[in-house]
């Protein structure tokens, strides 16, 4: 399938059905004086849903999203939606950015102009990038896989084909967070010859540390990580257990209730961001609802959740990654990795500890992230074979 232009246009029928459901939400009860410790707080979600049905304008957001240069092509039998914005500098470096869950390609909406056109934001035009932002298979406007096995490894192979066979780049840069971090690391491990370097904002949950039975072999920093990770999984990892084991069962409810879908997704934005418990400190209602809308209008919650199942059941192990790696850590992110472990398993050439920000880095602190990406890739621009 050739690359085709893509524009978002959600049917009136889908939007009318959404309005019908929002106006007829059946709310659960909540314990008196309970806050977010039991999950998404009732009064907050009621307020957000009221804004959603009475004030939120999808058509305005749709028009805004369609200002991005969007395309679609087929890779391994799956339709892949992606943004491709060309850089405005003298020799833009191609960069593929991979998102995670429960966000979408919108994770990078704010950072795209900072990377493609740094001169317009006080930067150096020689730091510009051609930015490619695909939607993961089963997420948003990409196609839903019809067979099992579409995990981080398989997606990395799809991205290699997208960048070289479909877009024609000989060599490129890659960055990501959450699932995007895993995809980027597999891309680097399997195709080091294609990459200048990789830039990560997290390393996910380091399973060989959390499951280690020999604490004597772990450093003090790694022991602290193991303790923190065990506590986090016990207190925060319920969503992960469900999506890794029974995503289909969960999908029935969240494909049927927009309020339920919002409750499932928004709780993660609050828990994983540097918002001090106040979502409005980091995000507008439009930002949050638009992320939920991407899942709702495409009915892709179930297919996105299956990515957790595939990654926990069919993902091959990773070995040492030789590709130069930059890591930018934001203090409120999930489980910051021990540097000792990182340097043993990746060729870490840049390690940045950011002053603020959380898991959704490109949404929360786009300027900080863009600057770190520019600085990490600057030495590679002397090589012009891209």
Sequence stretches where pLDDT stays below 50 over 5 or more residues: none
Give the ordered list of helices and strands.
EHHHEEEHEHEHEHHHHHHHEHEHH
Over the alpha carbons, how many angstroms does the gyration radius reach? 20 Å
CATH topology: Rossmann fold
How many separate domains make up the residues?
A: 1
The amount of helix comes to: 40-55%
Q: Which second-level CATH architecture applies?
A: 3-Layer(aba) Sandwich
Compile the SSE list and pairings.
Elements (H helix, E strand, L loop, with lengths): L3 E2 L6 H12 L18 H13 L3 H8 L4 E6 L2 E8 L7 E6 L12 H6 L12 E6 L17 H15 L5 E5 L2 H12 L4 E6 L6 H4 L9 H17 L1 H8 L1 H10 L1 H15 L12 H14 L2 H13 L7 E9 L9 H7 E8 L7 H4 L1 H12 L9
Parallel strand pairs: 4-5, 4-6, 6-7, 7-8, 8-9
Antiparallel strand pairs: 1-2, 2-3, 3-5
Helix pairs in contact: 5-6, 9-13, 10-11, 10-13, 11-12
What does this structure look like?
- This protein is an alpha/beta fold.
- The protein has a single domain (42-382), classed as 3-Layer(aba) Sandwich (Rossmann fold), CATH 3.40.50.1820.
- It has helices at 12-23, 42-54, 58-65, 111-116, 152-166, 179-190, 207-210, 220-236, 238-245, 247-256, 258-272, 285-298, 301-313, 339-345, 361-364, 366-377; strands at 4-5, 70-75, 78-85, 93-98, 129-134, 172-176, 195-200, 321-329, 346-353.
- It has a nine-stranded mixed β-sheet with strand order 1-2-3-5-4-6-7-8-9, sandwiched between helices.
- Helix 11 (258-272) crosses helix 12.
- The protein is globular, with a radius of gyration of 20 Å.
- The two termini are 24 Å apart.
- The model has no long low-confidence stretch (mean pLDDT 96).
């Amino acid at each position: 399938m050739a690359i085709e232009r893509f524009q978002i246009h959600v049917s009136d029928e889908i939007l009318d059905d959404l309005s019908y459901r929002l106006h007829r939400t059946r709310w659960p009860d909540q314990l008196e004086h309970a806050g977010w410790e039991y999950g998404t707080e009732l009064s907050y979600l009621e307020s957000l849903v009221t804004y959603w049905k009475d004030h939120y304008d999808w058509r305005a957001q749709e028009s805004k999203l369609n200002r991005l240069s969007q395309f679609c092509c087929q890779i391994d039998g799956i339709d892949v939606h992606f943004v491709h914005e060309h850089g405005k500098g003298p020799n833009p470096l191609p960069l593929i950015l991979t998102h995670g869950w429960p966000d979408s390609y919108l994770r990078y909406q704010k950072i795209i102009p900072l990377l493609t056109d740094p001169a317009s934001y006080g930067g150096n035009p020689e730091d510009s990038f051609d930015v490619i932002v695909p939607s993961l298979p089963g997420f948003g406007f990409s196609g839903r896989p019809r067979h099992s096995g579409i995990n981080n490894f398989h997606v990395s192979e799809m991205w290699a084909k997208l960048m070289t066979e479909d877009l024609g780049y000989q060599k490129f840069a890659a960055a990501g967070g959450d699932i995007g971090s895993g995809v980027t690391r597999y891309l680097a491990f399997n195709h080091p010859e294609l990459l200048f370097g990789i830039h990560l904002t997290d390393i996910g949950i380091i399973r060989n540390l959390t499951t280690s039975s020999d604490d004597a072999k772990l450093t003090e920093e790694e022991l602290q990580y193991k303790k923190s990770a065990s506590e986090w999984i016990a207190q925060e990892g319920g969503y992960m257990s469900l999506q890794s084991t029974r995503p289909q069962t969960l999908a029935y409810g969240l494909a049927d209730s927009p309020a339920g879908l919002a409750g499932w997704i928004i709780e993660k934005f609050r828990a994983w961001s540097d918002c001090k418990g106040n979502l409005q400190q980091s995000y507008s209602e439009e930002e949050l609802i638009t992320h939920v809308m991407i899942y709702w209008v495409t009915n892709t919650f179930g297919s996105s959740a299956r990515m957790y199942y595939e990654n926990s059941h069919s993902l091959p192990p990773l070995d040492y990654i030789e590709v130069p790696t930059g890591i930018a850590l934001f203090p409120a992110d999930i489980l910051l990795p021990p540097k000792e472990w990182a340097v043993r398993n990746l060729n870490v050439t840049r390690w940045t500890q950011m002053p603020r920000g959380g898991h959704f880095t490109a949404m929360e602190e786009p300027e900080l992230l863009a600057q770190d990406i520019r600085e990490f890739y600057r030495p590679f621009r002397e090589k012009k074979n891209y």
